[in-house]
Amino acid sequence: LKPLIGASLILFFLIYVVAVYLTEVAALHRAKADPRGASFDAVGQYYGTLGRSILSLFQSISGGVDWETTVDPLIEHISPMLGVGFTFFIAFCLLAMMNVVTGVFVESALRQGKADKDSYTVSYLKRLFSDMDSHRSGMITLEDFKQHLQSKDMRELFRSIDLDVSEADGVFRILDWNSDGSISQDEFLSGCLRLRGTAKALDVLVLMRETDRMFRVCLAEIRALQD
Fold it and tell me: What is the rounded radius of gyration, in angstroms, for the C-alpha atoms of the chain?
């Protein structure tokens, strides 16, 4: 939401600055023009006041009015150079600012989609763990893990982490963070979520596990020596 608000404020500020300039130019022109002439009314119709200028510019970039209609009075009655500047203004708003606003919406949609996918994945993993925990002990063993290797959900899990079911022993050891021969639901969820992605994620998780194991072994040795 913040990027959208920021982009909208920048767009409004740009419209405001250009509107102030065009209103001042139009006012100077109308001060010299004949109030009964076509030039007076043509310029005043779109740039007679600051509010009218802001509305005309916003309509020009949003499709509310054809921008050729709003630029013609500037070219015909004031200066062709204003037409050049107006063209650059339209091009910048359409090609730059509008793309930024569109990008914000797309990013927001992708972020929401990722959040929905993560929520679904957590629910899916909890259901899978519950299926494997036939004893309702809150823990699963290697035997429980292997018994469900041919289930649809388990095959889908291995496919999502880009591994084969033949590597079940290794995956179980990785998920068994404290090496007690069983996996809690928290260990299963956190481990599977970390394993999602490429094999690089698996390598990092293995390294983390081995580092933690070595740390605990070293700590136990130090305590034994102190005793």
Answer: 33
Q: What's the CA angle centered on 149, arms 148 and 154, to 5 degrees?
A: 85
pLDDT tens digit string along 196-222? 655 556 566 666 777 887 888 888 888
Q: Report how far residue 47's alpha carbon sits from residue 25's, in angstroms, rounded to the nearest whole number.
A: 9
Residue 183 backbone phi and psi in degrees, to 5: -125, 130
**pLDDT tens column, 116-141:** 777 877 888 888 888 888 788 888 88
- pTM of the entire structure? 0.51
Distance CA 201, CA 161 (A): 9
State CA 126 to chain mean position distance: 27
Query: Predicted confidence band at 24 (pLDDT cuts at 50, 70, 90)?
Result: very high
Q: Are 154 and 148 in contact, with CB atoms under 8 Å apart?
A: yes
Cα 212 from Cα 115, distance rounded (Å): 30
The Cα diameter of the chain in Å comes to 106
Report which DSSP code applies to 36: T
Pairing of the two strands 139-141 and 182-184: antiparallel
Helix extents (H) in 33-147: 38-47, 50-62, 67-77, 80-92, 98-132, 142-147
How far apart, in Å, are the Cα atoms of 126 and each of 25, 29, 37, 120, 199? 67, 73, 78, 10, 23
d(CA 127, CA 123) in angstroms, rounded, equals: 6
